[in-house]
Amino acid sequence: GHGSARQVALSPRSRSYGRSCVEPPSLFWQTPGRLTALGQRTPTARGAAKAYNITVRMYTVALLVQNEWKLSYVTPLYRFQYTKLKLYSRHLAAFILAEKQQGVAVEVGMEAGFRVTFSAVFGLAEKEEDAETVFIQIYSKPMFAADTPKMVWRGWLTCVNGDPEYLRSLPPDFVSLPLFCSNGSEYLTARVKSWFGRTFDCSFGSLCLSSATLNWLAALWTGCHPTCDIGYLKLYWSMPTQPTLDVEYTVNPHDAWELWNSICAQDGAEDMVSVEEVQRFMAGLETHLFRHFKIYLSAGSLVKVSTALGSAHQDGKIKIGSSDYITTLLTLLTECALLKTPV
Amino acid sequence: MDGQAKTILQRIIRKIPNKKLEVTLKSWDRLSTEQLESLDCTQPKWLFLENLISRCGEKRLGLKAVTKLEMVYYIDNPNQGTWQAFQLMEAEDDAVSVSFTQFRERFKANLEEDFRHISIRMKKLEDGAIWIRIAWGDNFRKPNHLKPTYVVHYLQTPYVFFLNFMSKHKPFLYEALFRATRHTSIKEAHLSGRSLTALRDLVMRQYQQVFPTKDRTLKERNGTPLHPNIEKEHAEYAERRHQMACEAFGDGILPKLERAVYKLETRYRGNSSNTLNDKDELFRGVVKFSSSNLLQSFHHCVATGIVEGPVTPLLSSITQKGKNYFVITDKVPGATH
Amino acid sequence: MALLTPYSKIPELNTATILLIENEERFQTKLADAIVQQEKDVNVNVRLARKLPLPLENGDSRPRVDLVVFVVSLRSERSLQAVESSLNYLASDYYLGKVCFVVTDARCGTLAQERMLRVRRLAASHHCPVLCAEHQTEEGIAMAAMRLLTILKVSAGLSPMATTALYLSSLTRCAAAPELDDD
C-alpha cells in the first residue's frame, strides 16, 4: 500500500511559498539520514497568531484545552474513512479487551470492558487539504452497571494547515493526520497505536520540539498580547552544569510584548513574522539576562515555553491554555510532525 | 495514650523512614533497652505503630513524650520543609550576656501571657543552637500539634530560623524573641531553603571561603595529569576562572541551597540593535535559578565559562550577603532590600 | 589580529601537531588521550583550546599546527557560536585541507536539525570536512581519534602515499547543496 506514496514524496519538489530548501545530507560525513515528508524544509516566515473562531464545537475544543498532551507523529492512514467511525469504536474496544485478556496487561482493574468513541471534530481544519480532526475517548466499563463509565484515555489526530503540496501528493486512499496527541496511561496509548498500525498500516514516532519551535511559540504567543492577555511569558533553560542548573525567566507580558513590538516595527511586513524577528526577540531576552548575570544561556538549552495560552516542553508535551489561538499552535505542531514523518 | 497523642505519633512514625526508626527511638530515650529490642523496625509501619503504642502504654508515655519524639527527629533531620532566616537588630547592652535559662524563661513567659493554650518545648544542643517547638492554640482551642512552628536560634548571634511559620503568629513570636534575646527589631534575611545547616553556614560564613591572593601557585586540580604530548592552551585562563569561582562561591563542599530568586525592576539592557534601549519604562521579570546544589552549579558555571567572570555582584551576593531573594533596581547597582 | 598560520614554523621530524578547539572542554581531553594513545609511529602533539585566538604568550612554545579541529556540540547554540567566531582567526592557508569539523551529540539530531544544517553550511563554505563523533562511548572516541589521525598525517605531510592535504580535502570536504547559494 505504501509504495506509491513513497515514490511521490521522494520526487524532487519545486520551491514555493518562500521556504528555503536544503538537500538531504551528503553521504560522506554522515550516515544516511532519514527522509521525511517535508525533507528538511523549515519555513522562514509564518503568519502572526490569529484568534480562532470557536463558535463551532465548543464542547470538543474545550476537551482539547483541559489536558496535557503527549505528542507523536503518524504516517498517513490507509483507507481511513470518516463514515466508519462507529465501526472503529467497536473494533478498538474489542482489540483492547482482547489484548488485555491475553495476559499482556499490566493493569488489573475491575472493569468489565471498554467503551470507545471516535468522533470527528469539524472546524479545526483550515485548508481544503486538511483532513478533519478525529477525537478518541476510551471509557472503562465498571463491573456493576450502576456505576458510570470512567474516562481513562483520550487522544486525537489532527492536521491543521498541513503542507498542501505534500497532502495533494498522497494517493487517494490515504488520509494524513500527522499529529497525534494522547493523554492517559502509556499502556492504552501503546494499544491504540498498535491498533491504528494494524488497521491503517501506519506507524507512530515520538515528536520532540526543537528550540527553534519553542522560539516560534514564544514569539507568536507574545504577539497575541494586545488582543488577549497572555498572563506571563515563561522561559525555562537547562544548563549543562554539575549539578544541572535550571533557569526560569518570567517576563511581564506587557514588557515582553513591547520588546516584540519594537522588533517587528523595524520590518514593515504586517501579519507576517520572520524567523529573524523571532531570533532577535529571543536573543534580546537572553541579552537582557546576560547584562545582569553574565550568563550565556545559549550554552544550555531552552526546554520549555509557557504563557496563559499554553505551554510546550522540549520532550513533546503540550498544554493548551486557551482555545483562542489554537490554530496557530496546531499549525506549527502539524508542521513539526510532517518534518519528522518518514516516507 | 489518648487519641490525640496516638494521631500525632502515627503522623511522626509515618514520616520517619524505616532505616532511621531505630536511631530516632534511641535518641528519644523514653523506652527501655528491652522495649527497644522487642520492636522490629522492618515491620510494616502500621504493625510497628501498634507495637510502639503498646510499649508507650507500658511506660505511661503521653502527648508530651510524643512531641519530644518529633523534636528529636527534626533536630537530626531538619530538612522537613522550607526554613526562613531572620536577623535580629538593635541589640540592647545586655544582649551579649543572655543565658539559656534566661532565654527560656523570658520566651515562655512572654508567649504564655499572650496565649492561654500554647505548647512550647525547648532544647539546647551542644553546638549552641536552641531548638524551640511551638504548637499554637488560642483562648478557646487547645494547641494544634499537627502544625507546630519550629524556631532555631543561636545564642549571642542575631540569627533566627523559622519553619512552618504563620504570619498571624508573627507579632507574638517577634515580641517573645525580642524580650528573650534583648533586641528591639527583626528583619527578614531573604534567605530560605530546605537545608537548615546550609542557611546557618551561609549567614555565619561557616564554609570554606577563598580570598583573593596575589601570588597563588598553580595547583593541579584535575586529578589525572595530562599526557606529556598534550598541552592546554588556555590552562591559565581555566585556573583564573576556577579562582574566581572559588572567591565568589567558596571551595570544597558548599552549603546546599536550592534556589535564588531575582525580581528584576530594571530598564531593558540589550544590544544596540534592539530598540527598547531608549525607553524609560522598566522591563519587569523574575529570574529563578534552581539546582540540587545551587552554589555548586554556579561554581561550575564560572569555572567552565558559562558564566563570564569576574562574577557579577548579583550572583556573588548570595554568599557575600547570605541572601537568595533579591529585588534588583537600576538606582543602586547590585542588590537592594 | 593574531592569526594562526600553518607555515610560519619549521616542521619537526616525524612529528604532527593537532589543535582541538572546543568551547565546552568536555570531549577534547578524552579525544586527545585517545589520539596520543593510538598513534605509535608518529610523534603526535595535541594542543587543547577553547577558542581562537590562542594566547599570545604560548606562541613560542607552540609547535607548528598541522590540523585544526573544531568540535561542535549540537546540544548548545553557544558551542556553534564559539566556532563561528573562531574561524576568523585562522590564516586562509589552513582552509586548504588543514581544518576539520567534528560534530558531537548528533544523536539528538531531531532537536538540532537547524544547527546541524548550519554546521554543514559553515563547513561547506570553508571547504572543510565534517565528521560525526559519538563521544559517550570508548569505541566512539577511539573511532573519532582514528579518523582524525588519518587526516592529520596527510595534512602534516607524513602519509606514506603521496597525498596532499589539498587533494584529500577536495575529496572529503562537505558539499553544500547547490540551492544553498541561491537563497
From TrEMBL, chain A:
<dbReference type="Pfam" id="PF13092">
    <property type="entry name" value="CENP-L"/>
</dbReference>
<dbReference type="GO" id="GO:0000775">
    <property type="term" value="C:chromosome, centromeric region"/>
</dbReference>
<keyword id="KW-0137">Centromere</keyword>
<protein>
    <recommendedName>
        <fullName>Centromere protein L</fullName>
    </recommendedName>
</protein>
<keyword id="KW-0539">Nucleus</keyword>
<comment type="similarity">
    <text>Belongs to the CENP-L/IML3 family.</text>
</comment>
<dbReference type="InterPro" id="IPR025204">
    <property type="entry name" value="CENP-L"/>
</dbReference>
<keyword id="KW-0158">Chromosome</keyword>
<dbReference type="GO" id="GO:0005634">
    <property type="term" value="C:nucleus"/>
</dbReference>
TrEMBL record, chain B:
<comment type="similarity">
    <text>Belongs to the CENP-N/CHL4 family.</text>
</comment>
<dbReference type="GO" id="GO:0034080">
    <property type="term" value="P:CENP-A containing chromatin assembly"/>
</dbReference>
<dbReference type="Pfam" id="PF05238">
    <property type="entry name" value="CENP-N"/>
</dbReference>
<dbReference type="GO" id="GO:0007059">
    <property type="term" value="P:chromosome segregation"/>
</dbReference>
<keyword id="KW-0137">Centromere</keyword>
<protein>
    <recommendedName>
        <fullName>Centromere protein N</fullName>
    </recommendedName>
</protein>
<dbReference type="GO" id="GO:0000775">
    <property type="term" value="C:chromosome, centromeric region"/>
</dbReference>
<dbReference type="InterPro" id="IPR052011">
    <property type="entry name" value="CENP-NAC/CAD_complex"/>
</dbReference>
<keyword id="KW-0158">Chromosome</keyword>
<dbReference type="GO" id="GO:0005654">
    <property type="term" value="C:nucleoplasm"/>
</dbReference>
<dbReference type="InterPro" id="IPR007902">
    <property type="entry name" value="Chl4/mis15/CENP-N"/>
</dbReference>
<keyword id="KW-0539">Nucleus</keyword>
UniProtKB/TrEMBL annotation, chain C:
<dbReference type="GO" id="GO:0000775">
    <property type="term" value="C:chromosome, centromeric region"/>
</dbReference>
<dbReference type="GO" id="GO:0005634">
    <property type="term" value="C:nucleus"/>
</dbReference>
<keyword id="KW-0158">Chromosome</keyword>
<protein>
    <recommendedName>
        <fullName>Centromere protein M</fullName>
    </recommendedName>
</protein>
<keyword id="KW-0137">Centromere</keyword>
<dbReference type="InterPro" id="IPR027417">
    <property type="entry name" value="P-loop_NTPase"/>
</dbReference>
<dbReference type="InterPro" id="IPR020987">
    <property type="entry name" value="Centromere_Cenp-M"/>
</dbReference>
<keyword id="KW-0539">Nucleus</keyword>
<dbReference type="Pfam" id="PF11111">
    <property type="entry name" value="CENP-M"/>
</dbReference>
